[in-house]
Prior knowledge:
By secondary structure, this protein is an alpha+beta fold. The chain is built from 23 helices and 23 strands. The protein starts with 10 loop residues before the first helix and ends with a helix.
Amino acid sequence: MLNMIxxxxxxxxxxxxxxKIIEALMRRAGRQKDVGPSAYRAFQSAIELQQKMxxxxxxxxxxxxxxxxxxxxxxxxxxxxxxxxxxxxHGTLNICNDLFKGLLPDISEHIVPGxxxxxxxxxxxxxxxxxxxxxxxxxxxxxxxxxxxxxxxVSLVAEVTKDRWYQMSTQQxxxxxxxxxxxxxxxxxxxxxxxxxxxxxxxxxYLQAVFQNMSSGVCTFSASGxxxxxxxxxxxxxxxxxxxxxxxxxxxxxLDFMRSKSLITDNALLQMDAWRDELTKKGAVxxxxxxxxxxxxxxxxxxxxxxxFLVELKDVTxxxxxxxxxxxxxMERTAELTRANANLTEQYDEKARVEEELRVAKERAxxxxxxxxxxxxxxxxxxxxxxxxxxxxxxxxxxxxxxxRFRPMVERLxxxxxxxxxxxxxxxxxxxxxxxxxxxxxxxxxxxxxxMLGIKADQMMLAAQKSVQLHVVPCSLVVRSDxxxxxxxxxxxxVNAIQYTDPGGRVLLGCRRTGDTVVLEVWDTGIGINIxxxxxxxxxxxRAENVPLGSGVGLGLSVVDRACRLLGHKLSVRSKPGVxxxxxxxxEVVKGAPSMPILQGPIEDTADAAxxxxxxxxxxxxxxxxxxxxRLELWGASVLAARTTAEALEFxxxxxxxxxxxxxxYQLDAGETGVQATLDLRAKTGTAIPAILITxxxxxxxxxxxxxxxxxxxxxxxxxxxLRRLVDWKVRGRAASASASQVKVQTKVEGDSPA
Length: 755
């Protein structure tokens, strides 16, 4: 019988079933005439069931009591909470505290157990006590009904009447249960509001302080043309009282007042509409106007994002008056000259000729002064072309007259030409440095070792001619500098040291590392410099008092000083008369950075070896082409001289093979370049012909083009000793590479062949 009762049924159901079973058993026992074993067992079962029913009834009462006690305790706990809390089970309200219920008084009577969650949000959105929320209520409702947010918290901020603020947080603790929590954040919102208002007030104070301390007058107007802010300088410049410049004053009223006081003209008012249209289109307007009887103002207006505009006033009366005074003086002086000229022309019959000559001379003088710097900066290519040609021809002349009686004359000619070349280079360097700024200087990572070894190779001949020992201690550090200006600076210091050192003396080029900087130093045992001369030797055309006559015009150190100041390097000198000098350039070291290669060839001397190569020379200048051809043929080379790319390609067709090397000028005629000409020759022959680009253009662009297309770059006028070494090195390097490739191919073929 006990199996007739399902233990999973609620306690009340089980007790009711047991009572029915006991009653049935009792009726059955009463119908029996005798008490047999089966009846006794049935009665005994009924008694046991009755006892169990009594026990379970007692248990049920205990559970009911505990449930009511728990519910009462939960209600008391919810009532003592500072925030509002409500518990929804299966989408309907189970229990809530008084704060939750009384948040919105006009719907509190509807918040009773059994209220659906959707109905609660509908009541909340219709309440007159709800002022605003930071997000829509249906958004939170949809998030709760999506069945995808179990365990997640969804919240919103709600404002109710009397400036009270609450944060409502909802969380699904299970698919059936949802908890709503109300937390009052009124104090936090009000505190943040006060902080925001305080910051706004402080910003207004700062802005007002800036306005009041500006040297120019500043005023802002709204989009409708009403005054918003202005400083004291604005009132002072305009000469209007504070009562007229109150916030909210229309611009038209301000203009009418100024017109009534004769501070502006009627014409200015007529230009206002056009002025506003231009401001709207361009966003800014600048003009110069007359103010009052004797003042001139610069007016600049800028459009503000909200459609208003800002007006800035500057009093330029003194500037205008000064300009007028100067113009008057010029006019007076011109008038005096005109009268003097008229008096002179009255005395001489050649009036027209003299006036014309004076006018032409004046124009030429003015043009010469104004174009000096621009001419020297822009004409470097045209100036260096004939210099390069003359240098090549003199070199060839030296070679051909080596054993003749003309040799001393040619050597003097070469010395005079070298002085002229050095002077021209110095003038061009000064011109470039005068016109240069931080935007035109091209800085890169440069290894000092390449500079130092290159300078040693270039100046060893000069040192030998002076019987001076030149020692170079290479330095592998990398610095950030412009390679053209830095190389020129070090060259000038070394050349000066050799020039002013007596035969038998020594010159040393080296570096010292001091922390994050490196100091490049040039030591010499020369004539030295007096203390009073050390501060002025860097000026143009200035030399020390103990410098012998005919030893230069004093431009080399000026070039070094200008270049170092432009590059941010520190230049200094220490010297003692009769002992020697030390010139130093201090630069910052670049750590862990790759350097730009400077030397593009060997530094060993190969002057005795004949250049038994076929050399293609592409040069549009006839004299330079002739000079290069003569020099290369004296070195033993066979030269193909071309003025254009087309001529060079014809030589290739006639020759039927590529030349050993190409020497090309960068700037050719008709827009051609030596880079493109080299690429065309390589494409036609299908060979990576070695190439050297010889140019007067010292820009970083040309240097990078050369590196990009595997072309060494030399600047005009080219150092002939370096050119010879470079030609020989590049051709031999290509031959060695080709030989290595042939060995690899042959080895591979032999390895693949059967034994």
